[in-house]
């Protein structure tokens, strides 16, 4: 199968090719070995546990053997490696290398030889100028070069094939030629590294009898190769023509040759050290000189390759640098001198190049480390006067390295500071064998930096002296903050060494660091709190603090405890001590203030502190504020709460997120196990996963704090804690699972934090709650039945209902917070709680989100949970949520209420239906924008805007919820229906806008037709809810300005009157008539007159049967119709038309005037005494308009001849009793009317309308 996949990986179809490569577990990302040299360009996702790889021997036999009869693969149809496409060959070589590395025994020699033959045959294709240079060919060249280097690094048998005569088609010299002439820079670099691996293997070139350096030179013939490289590198000199590719290959090959010779020469005994030929040392020196000159070359290819080559040439394996041979003193002095110039050139000024600066810094660190043993040599060994002294040159190079911190290149790329730190760490720790003594050292550093002192100090003291007394005290924030990565690199190197090997603590750099560990920790804390610190600087300080703990843990507990205490104080203690990691009681706070001498003369801040107010944001360390150290204060608080101070350092390591910490060459160097060691709580775990496992038992207490800090108002704190959160939980689905496992305790803790006296804690708690409640169900919140009690301080187990109500209470409280940041965060929480409540009340929510149908039992359980959630939420929202002074909280509760009403079942709503209906009706005006009221008072089109507002309120979600409740009322019990009537009355009386009053009127009209039994109450006084509602509607309609809302309420009065007690209706009608009569003259009020007329009309049209009966008899004929008759003469035509409708309605009604007798057939004559009485009352009124209406009414009666004597026939000799009474009635009415007209006329005052009285009197008299 793997053979087929290798073949298909070279298929022309990109889909087939990519699938085959994925099946092989290959990716195009190149990787680096830990040793620093590039290895095979593959990254296999294959694991032996998940996808077992074939044995190396088997895959080689099936891919590379040309004979068709080898093994079981005897088919002539099988294509071999030589028949594959170029891409197929590259995939075959890569996969074979994966199998070789996976083989525990390194593969059999025969299989390795077959593989080497295939590699050499492939490389031979690129030997010469005619080699193909297409992209696919270059990829194959790179793959074969990488595979060759990996194979030679892993197998001595493979190296031996090139060191001696073998069946391979390429020899060592051929590889050297390829390293110079290959068409790929990567291939040249890798092949040069392969040559170096071969030369460095002493066992290939030496025997027990011949193991001298001279014999090694004669066998390897390395001198010829060195001379060739030296000749090629002459083009580096200024003013010469050069080929960049040739310079590139010569630099790497020459560097590996120099390294091989230098390391071999260092193994010679001291008495034979002078036996090496001088011309070889001279050639080696020339190569190094040329490489050092190339570091200043303007061409990037030449400059970078020279820089890398110089680093390879002086590199070494092991902890201590080998003793530098005296023959290399001058060359090394020149090298470090040229590096100093290159560092100054490319880190400052116009030639700034951050990438080149990083390469130069790495190389400078290697060179300084390798030349440590020769640092004291000055003008010896017959050096000329123009020669450079190695000691001063080294100091200048180290100073140039340190000057890069904060430079222009560092500002462009902040990782430069870390690379510089790694370089100076290698320089400081290059040489410290047992018994080493330094010519000059000091115990205490001067308080101020001194160049003269720094130049005399040994490397381990020089580096720390500059960083601690000069760099961190610079006024430039760029220089000052760049010290954090540099100092971290030094401290981390020592921590790794101590945690790897216990004897490391005896090295000079380790002892120096341990003696100044407290100062270094203070520097890291200061840099961490520096407001100018950027991402890498802050995280470097975090890792530096952890590394200090790792170093101190290996010495003694006293030092470790002192570091822990100092760090907790810096992170935790503030002046109010309320948010401290080491929280104190009130008694302890009083004792502390007394100890500090603040008991007798307290400042205002001290007084406020006693009450828990935040008086300042200055922390325990000078210059640290609450915002800067917010994330770390939370970490310290969590560690202290757990009683495990060592967890703080793990949290610091987990909080880093800069990409540089996760690169392959630094992932292990700055890991928890490297910095803290196996003695920490992590045990022998080295990765993030092990750290997560170690911290998992503490998540119950850690999660609330970390989640709260992830939503801190300070951006820096949020970013730092989000990195910690992702590192602690794994992020994504793993984080969600971790929260789910500790959901209840996390929610409860965050709800408590929502009432914290520190506003930052309240902001974070709101944001954290909004994040973790998303998508939760009733059971995940604790389950249980509905909560119908206001007491939420439940001890022990908390059901979901209590937890939901606590969430609502916390949200409402935060929405009304004095801090704007808390209110903003509470809005996010409010949206989350609203969504959660709606989801909990909807039994189909889970089905809607997942799209899967549930079983019957599961559906029943979901319905029970939804019913419990709805009953709990509705009761709280209606009774408490809608009564808030905070408009935002009320709006949130109301919008949630509307949504819940739309999805719950009627049986759940019935217990709270009256209160709910009242709340919704009140909200229809309460949630209207204030701008509408402003426009309503200032627009010219009052009626148009009012209609628009009513239409808007009646078409919104609130109106839909009200309609649903009204539709439910006929189906509920009569007691519930009757309970609605008082609530409607309350809503009407408490309404703040006409939208509510109009909605109440519509609701009353609807209920009167659907639920008439709801208005049947005993009694007719104001204690009857129906009567109170009737009167409230009348008074509201009287005061209402808008015609649309007024019409709705008048209509409701008429409809409600039909189901109210008759006596209350008659009383209301009489009150309306009196109100109409009083609304003239000085009390002129057309609105009131119109309202009274409309009310009488509504009652007349819908409840006229209530006008008869009672002590006053039929008030319709005795009071209402007379008023209507005069009202027909009202000056306002609209009012007159309303009374005209009432009068016309009376014409068709049966009139019962009580004990009086009816005469005639006309309505006017039937109620003539009452009409005349009403007209006389009008004439007596002080209002001129009412007098005119009365006079005009009398004029109409006179014109109808109802005031004239009855006609009598002359033939009749006797008048009947009925006619006498009729005549007497007319005579009495006419005389009374005429008398009143004359009384009015005799008064001397002239007023408008007096002529109408004259006309009426004349008409009556005639």
Give an account of the 3D structure.
With 1262 residues, the chain is mainly α. The protein is 64% helix and 0% strand. It contains 61 helices and no strands. Helix 1 runs antiparallel to helix 2 and helix 20 crosses helix 23.
Helix and strand layout, with pairings?
Blueprint: H1 2-8, H2 14-24, H3 56-64, H4 86-102, H5 109-124, H6 135-154, H7 156-163, H8 172-181, H9 185-200, H10 202-205, H11 213-220, H12 222-233, H13 244-265, H14 278-294, H15 300-313, H16 329-347, H17 354-370, H18 390-403, H19 408-412, H20 415-428, H21 451-456, H22 459-469, H23 477-500, H24 508-515, H25 517-529, H26 535-553, H27 557-572, H28 586-595, H29 604-610, H30 630-642, H31 647-654, H32 672-676, H33 688-695, H34 699-709, H35 715-729, H36 732-741, H37 743-753, H38 759-772, H39 800-815, H40 820-841, H41 845-850, H42 856-879, H43 887-901, H44 906-909, H45 913-926, H46 930-938, H47 942-954, H48 957-968, H49 974-990, H50 994-1010, H51 1025-1039, H52 1043-1057, H53 1062-1078, H54 1086-1103, H55 1115-1127, H56 1133-1147, H57 1163-1166, H58 1168-1180, H59 1184-1199, H60 1217-1242, H61 1250-1261
Helix pairs in contact: 1-2, 1-4, 3-4, 3-5, 4-6, 5-6, 6-7, 6-9, 8-9, 8-13, 9-13, 12-13, 12-14, 13-14, 13-15, 14-15, 14-16, 15-17, 16-17, 16-18, 17-18, 17-20, 20-22, 20-23, 23-25, 23-26, 25-26, 26-27, 26-31, 27-30, 30-31, 30-34, 31-35, 34-35, 34-37, 34-38, 35-36, 37-38, 38-40, 39-40, ...
């Amino acid at each position: 199968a793997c053979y087929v996949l290798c073949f298909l990986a070279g298929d022309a179809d990109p889909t087939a090719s990519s699938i085959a490569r994925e099946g092989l577990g290959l990716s195009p990302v190149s990787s680096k070995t830990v040793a620093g040299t590039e290895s095979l360009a593959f990254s296999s996702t294959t694991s032996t546990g998940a996808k077992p790889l074939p044995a190396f021997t088997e895959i080689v036999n099936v891919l590379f053997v040309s004979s068709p009869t080898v093994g079981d693969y005897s088919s002539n149809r099988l294509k071999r490696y030589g028949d594959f496409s170029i891409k197929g060959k590259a995939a075959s070589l890569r996969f074979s290398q994966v199998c070789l590395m996976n083989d525990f025994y390194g593969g059999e020699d025969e299989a390795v030889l077959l593989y080497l033959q295939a590699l050499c045959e492939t490389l031979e294709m690129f030997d010469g100028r005619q080699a193909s240079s297409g992209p696919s060919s270059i990829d194959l060249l790179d793959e074969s070069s990488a595979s060759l280097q990996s194979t030679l690094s892993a197998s001595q048998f493979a190296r031996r094939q090139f060191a001696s005569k073998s069946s391979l088609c390429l020899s060592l010299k051929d590889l050297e030629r390829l390293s110079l002439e290959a068409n790929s820079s990567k291939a040249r670099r890798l092949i040069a590294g392969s040559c170096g691996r071969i030369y460095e293997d002493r066992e290939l070139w030496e025997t027990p009898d011949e193991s001298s350096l001279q014999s090694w030179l004669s066998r390897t013939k390395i001198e010829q190769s060195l001379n060739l490289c030296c000749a090629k590198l002459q083009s580096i000199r200024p003013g010469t023509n050069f080929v960049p590719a040739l310079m590139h290959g010569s630099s790497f090959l020459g560097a590996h040759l120099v390294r091989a010779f230098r390391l071999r020469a260092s193994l010679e005994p001291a008495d034979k050290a002078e036996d090496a030929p001088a011309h070889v040392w001279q050639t080696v020196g020339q190569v190094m000189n040329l490489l050092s000159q190339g570091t200043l070359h303007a061409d990037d290819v030449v400059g970078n390759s020279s820089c890398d080559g110089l680093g390879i040439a002086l590199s070494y394996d092991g902890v201590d640098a080998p003793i530098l041979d005296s023959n290399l003193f001058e060359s090394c002095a020149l090298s470090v001198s040229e590096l100093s110039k290159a560092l100054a050139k490319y880190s400052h000024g116009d030639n700034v190049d951050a990438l080149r600066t990083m390469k130069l810094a790495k190389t400078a660190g290697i060179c300084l480390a390798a030349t440590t043993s020769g640092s004291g040599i000055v003008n010896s060994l017959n050096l000329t006067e123009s020669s450079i002294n190695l000691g001063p040159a080294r100091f200048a190079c180290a100073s140039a390295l340190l000057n890069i911190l904060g430079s222009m290149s560092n500002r462009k790329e902040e990782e430069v500071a870390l690379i510089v730190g790694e370089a100076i760490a290698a320089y400081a720790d290059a040489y410290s064998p047992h018994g080493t003594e330094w010519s000059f050292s000091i115990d205490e550093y001067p308080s101020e930096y001194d160049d003269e002192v720094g130049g005399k100090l040994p490397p381990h003291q020089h580096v720390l002296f500059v960083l601690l007394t000069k760099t961190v005290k610079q006024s430039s924030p760029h220089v000052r903050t760049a010290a954090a990565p540099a100092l971290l690199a030094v401290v981390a190197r020592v921590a790794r060494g101590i945690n790897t090997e216990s004897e490391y603590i005896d090295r000079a750099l380790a002892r120096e660091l341990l003696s100044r560990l407290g100062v270094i920790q203070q520097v890291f804390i200061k840099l961490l709190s520096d407001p100018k610190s950027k991402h890498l600087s802050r995280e470097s300080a975090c890792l530096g603090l952890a590394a200090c703990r790792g170093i101190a843990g290996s010495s003694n507990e006293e030092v470790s405890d002192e570091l822990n205490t100092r760090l907790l104080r810096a992170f935790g203690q503030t002046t109010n001590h309320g948010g401290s990691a080491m929280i104190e009681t009130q008694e302890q706070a009083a004792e502390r203030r007394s100890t500090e001498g603040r008991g007798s003369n307290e400042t205002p801040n001290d007084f406020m502190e006693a009450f828990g107010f935040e008086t300042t944001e200055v922390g325990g360390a000078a210059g640290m504020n609450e915002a800067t150290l917010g994330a770390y204060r939370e970490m310290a608080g969590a560690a202290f709460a757990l009683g495990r101070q060592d967890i703080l350092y793990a949290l610091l390591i987990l909080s880093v997120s800069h990409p540089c910490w996760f690169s392959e060459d630094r992932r292990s160097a700055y890991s928890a196990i490297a910095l803290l060691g196996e003695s920490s709580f992590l045990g022998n775990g080295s990765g993030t996963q092990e750290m997560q496992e170690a911290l998992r038992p503490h998540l119950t207490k850690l999660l609330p704090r970390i989640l709260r800090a992830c939503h801190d108002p300070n951006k820096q704190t949020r970013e730092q804690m989000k990195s910690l959160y992702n590192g602690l939980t794994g992020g994504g689905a793993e984080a969600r699972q971790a929260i789910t496992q500790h959901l209840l305790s996390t929610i409860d803790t965050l709800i408590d934090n929502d009432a914290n006296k520190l506003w930052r804690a309240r902001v974070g708690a709101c944001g954290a709650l909004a994040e973790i409640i998303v998508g939760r169900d009733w059971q995940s919140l604790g389950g249980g039945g509905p909560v119908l009690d206001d007491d939420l301080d439940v001890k022990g187990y908390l059901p979901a209902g209590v937890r939901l109500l606590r969430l609502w209470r916390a949200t409402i409280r935060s929405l009304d917070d004095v801090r704007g940041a808390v209110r903003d965060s509470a809005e996010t929480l409010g949206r989350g709680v609203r969504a959660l409540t709606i989801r909990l009340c909807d039994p189909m929510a889970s089905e809607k989100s997942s799209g899967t149908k549930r079983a019957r039992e599961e559906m029943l359980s979901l319905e029970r949970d939804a019913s419990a959630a709805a009953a709990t939420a509705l009761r709280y929202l209606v009774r408490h949520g809608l009564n808030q002074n905070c408009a935002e909280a009320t709006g949130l509760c109301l919008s949630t209420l509307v949504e819940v009403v739309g999805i719950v079942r009627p049986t759940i709503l019935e217990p709270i239906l009256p209160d709910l209906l009242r709340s919704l009706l009140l909200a229809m005006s309460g949630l209207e924008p204030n701008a509408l009221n402003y426009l309503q008072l200032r627009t010219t089109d009052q009626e148009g805007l009012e209609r628009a507002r009513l239409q808007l309120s009646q078409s919104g979600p609130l109106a839909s919820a009200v309609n649903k409740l009204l539709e439910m009322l006929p189906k509920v019990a009569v007691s519930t229906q009757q309970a609605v009537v008082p609530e409607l009355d309350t809503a009407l009386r408490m309404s703040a806008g006409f939208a509510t009053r109009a909605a109440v009127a519509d609701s009353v009209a609807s209920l009167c037709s659907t639920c008439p039994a709801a208005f049947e109450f005993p009694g007719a006084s104001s204690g009857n809810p129906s009567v109170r509602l009737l009167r409230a509607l009348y008074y509201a309609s009287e005061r209402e300005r808008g015609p649309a809302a007024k019409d709705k309420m008048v209509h409701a009065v008429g409809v409600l009157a039909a189901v109210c007690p008759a006596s209350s209706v008659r009383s209301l009608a009489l009150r309306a008539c009196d109100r109409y009569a009083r609304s003239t003259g000085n009390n002129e009020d057309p609105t009131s007159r119109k309202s009274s007329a409309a009310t009488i009309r509504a009652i007349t049209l819908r409840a006229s049967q209530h006008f008869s009966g009672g002590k006053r008899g039929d008030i319709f004929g005795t009071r209402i119709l007379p008023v209507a008759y005069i009202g027909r003469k009202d000056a306002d035509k609209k009012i007159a038309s309303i009374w005209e409708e009432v009068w016309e309605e009376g014409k068709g009604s049966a009139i019962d005037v009580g004990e009086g007798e009816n005469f005639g057939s006309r309505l006017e004559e039937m109620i003539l005494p009452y009409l005349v009485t009403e007209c006389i009352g009008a004439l007596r009124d002080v209002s001129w308009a009412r007098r005119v209406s009365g006079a005009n009414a009398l004029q109409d009666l006179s014109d109808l001849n109802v005031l004239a004597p009855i006609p009598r026939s002359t033939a009749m000799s006797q008048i009947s009793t009925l006619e006498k009474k009729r005549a007497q009635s007319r005579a009495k009415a006419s005389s009374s009317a005429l008398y009143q007209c004359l009384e009015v006329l005799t008064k001397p005052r002239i007023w408008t309308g007096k002529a109408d009285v004259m006309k009426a009197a004349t008409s009556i008299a005639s």
